[in-house]
Amino acid sequence: MTLTRRSGVALAIAGSVLTLAAATPRVFSPGYTYRMRITGQTTEPNGKTKDYIVMSGRAMVTSKAGRMDIDTASKERGAMADKGGYILYDPTSMMIVSPKDKQVLKFTFEDIEKGMGAVAANMPGMRIAITDVAVNLEKLGPGEQLLGMGTTKYRLTQDYKIAMKVAFMNRNSTEHIVQDYWMADQKSGFANPFSRMGSARPIGGGAFAELMTKNAEATAKMGKGIPVKTVTTTTSTSDRGEKTTSVTTMEVTELQSGNVDDAMLVVPADYQVMDMGAQTRAMGAQMEQNKAAQAQAAAHPGQPAEAAPPDSGPSAKGAAKEAAKEAGAEGVKDAAKKGLRGMGGLLRRP
Questions:
Q1: What CA–CA distance (Å, rounded) separates 177 from 55?
Q2: What residues does 95 pair with on adjacent strands?
Q3: CA-CA distances (angstroms) from residue 187 to 191, 195, 299?
């Protein structure tokens, strides 16, 4: 071997050693992996029944954060992410990640709660009233063994009336929701990715504030156990006597303990992050300002009202435009109810 070739080989080896030495060591934390599957069944007033899958995927969780990779998803049925994407979450926020677009939608729970009430109360062209709210929690005793663990069964019942006016449409119905929970004992690091969303309480009021607050208070009484299975049965009766029943089931399967790579629980550095929680709060604030300006104009006709400052965020504008468009659709009532009884109904406070 010539001296030049020997030198080249030596330099290559030295470079590899330096690269390995400079690399950041991978960190692993104790945690769990499991599969989660959310399915549904709807029975229409005409008696027709339809079965469907809302979302399924594999989760990895630690005491600090978690990730759920989505392999089946139906946006029409309330899935939060697309197939092939994944959801990252920690105690304060949730992020929906799209590897295809290298984009991230971040929801900070505090910002969502602050903006939720204002958006619901000031949505253009839509008025919602929820009355006769009753929420009751029962402890039913020991449940069956699931995932090799003993469970305690709870039943949460919600009753309320909802009246909605959207453009020229008026809809009124009575809602009866029964949620059965199979709760296993608390395990450090075993978390549900949507638990904080299920216990959200709108700050500043809004039509759903009383219902969501009572629901959060009731679920908190179940303690810090883990919901390994939930079944939610919703019966909606219209003012014309038409009855629709839906059953949604969430199950955790294939639970295993083991170390989780912390690098899998953070957003890639080259992905674009959009903070939707802050935009929701900003949109709510702008709606409140517009409502105040309209009230001022009505009280003092002929005087120029102070217009709300324009929103410079294009995504917030798009969200407001889309919300106004959806407000005129027949499905807005169902969408609002699904937001309550879907993710929030299936899942609970950690």
A1: 21
A2: 88, 106
A3: 8, 15, 58
Single-letter amino acid code for the residue at 350: P
* Buried b or exposed e, range 326-343, using 16+ CB within 10 angstroms: ebeeeebbeebbbbbbbb
Q: Classify residue 160 by its DSSP letter.
A: E
Partners of 259 in the β-ladder:
30
Q: Residue 321 has what pLDDT?
A: 42
Phi, psi of 70 (to 5 degrees): -90, 125
- pLDDT tens digits, 257-302: 999 999 999 999 999 998 876 666 666 666 667 767 766 776 766 6
- For the chain, strand residue ranges (E) read 28-43, 49-62, 66-73, 86-89, 93-98, 103-108, 126-146, 149-166, 169-184, 226-238, 243-261, 272-275
Cβ contact 272:99 at 8 Å: no
C-alpha closest to that of 89 among 201, 4, 197, 215: 197
Q: What is the pLDDT of residue 291?
A: 65
Quick count: other Cβ atoms within 10 Å of Cβ 262?
15
C-alpha neighbours within 13 Å on the C-beta side of residue 159: 4
**DSSP 8-state code for residue 331:** T
Terminal Cα-to-Cα distance of the chain (whole angstroms): 65
Tokens standing for residue 261: 């790579």
Distances 206 to 128, 167, 283 between C-alpha atoms, Å: 9, 19, 15
With beta carbons less than 8 A apart as the criterion, state whether 265 and 249 touch.
no
b or e along 17-38 (b: 16 or more beta carbons within 10 Å of the residue's beta carbon)? eeeeeeeeeeeeeebbebebbb
Burial profile 288-313: b = 16 or more Cβ within 10 angstroms, e = fewer: bbeeeeeeeeeeeeeeebeebeebeb
CA-derived radius of gyration, the chain: 24
Query: Within the chain, which residues score under 70 in pLDDT?
Result: 1-24, 111-126, 167-168, 191-207, 277-288, 291, 294-295, 298, 300-350
Instruction: 290-297: list long-range contacts, CB under 8 Å, 24+ apart.
Output: 290/122, 291/122
